[in-house]
Amino acid sequence: MKNSFCGVMILISTFSCNQVSTFETVECIENGNSYMVFKPCRQYIFNAKLWDAEHNQVSESKIWMMANGNPWEYQPESQQEITIQYEFDEEDVDRINNLSINKKLLDWTWVKKTTTGIIENENIIWMHPFRQNQYSFTEVAPFPEVRLPLEHGKTWSGSLNIYEGWGDWANSTLTNYYEVIGYENLELPYRKLEAWHISSYTEASFGSSSHNFWFHPEFGFVKMIIHNYGNQTLEIELIEIIEN
């Protein structure tokens, strides 16, 4: 079994004439597991665009993700750990916070790096969403999830309990519904590919949110469009993969 320790290089991504995004070096373990999607030390870079209820663009920034080869500390028996890094401009925080649909979360400190859990096995591929900073509302939309094998018309459902610490959403239960729409051609900034299109929505006491996402058998959740109950829209697309 291969078991090596490595440090992942800093990624510098220029996306405008005067703006440069730098992500920190993150260590990872190539632990020899059989994961295809959350392959340890593979770096995923996404572009995220957020629009308000009037469809004015609120922000555009990069999100970096990598499985680091370790069990997730909160559920080590069932979930592996990924590191996520968020790009944002400190000067924009107050402006974006004013648009939050959950005002009780405004005392949260914005973070540039965090870890969370994923599941990948022969039956399910699942991840916590990108839910920090201006993307907190993804907590109350259906999480990225596929139940294998996928086929046109397949459906499934599940529930999620929200506990303390989530402001207006605390102590609530969400019911999530998923349907496989089909296998579609997709043109991404990363490249053209074919992926499964899954449509999903959440029922909750405070409102319903929808999530359309596209899943590739090797690269995972390559595109996500979330429309929250406040009529805001978040679009996330894969723009680059860096193999170790």
In brief, what are we looking at here?
With 244 residues, this protein is mainly β.
Task: Describe this protein with a few key phrases.
two-stranded antiparallel ribbon; mainly beta; 16 strands
Task: Report what the structure shows.
The protein is mainly β. The chain is 2% helix and 52% strand. The protein has one helix at 93-97, and strands spanning 4-8, 12-16, 19-22, 26-30, 43-51, 57-71, 80-86, 113-120, 124-127, 145-147, 155-162, 172-187, 192-203, 209-216, 220-227, 233-242.
List the topology elements:
Elements: E1 4-8, E2 12-16, E3 19-22, E4 26-30, E5 43-51, E6 57-71, E7 80-86, H1 93-97, E8 113-120, E9 124-127, E10 145-147, E11 155-162, E12 172-187, E13 192-203, E14 209-216, E15 220-227, E16 233-242
Antiparallel strand pairs: 1-4, 2-3, 5-6, 5-16, 6-7, 7-8, 8-9, 9-10, 11-12, 12-13, 13-14, 14-15, 15-16
Beta-strand content bin: over 45%
General form: globular
Reading the helices and strands in chain order gives: EEEEEEEHEEEEEEEEE
Instruction: Tell me roughly what share of residues is in helical segments.
Output: under 10%
First-to-last CA distance: 17 Å
Reported for the largest beta sheet, the result is:
12 strands, antiparallel
Low-confidence stretches: 1-20
User: Treating each run of at least 4 consecutive H or I residues as one helix, how many helices?
Assistant: 1
Radius of gyration, in Å, reads 18 Å
Q: Order of strands across the widest beta sheet?
A: 10-9-8-7-6-5-16-15-14-13-12-11
Q: How many beta-strand runs?
A: 16
Helix/strand-derived class? mainly beta
Mean pLDDT: 90
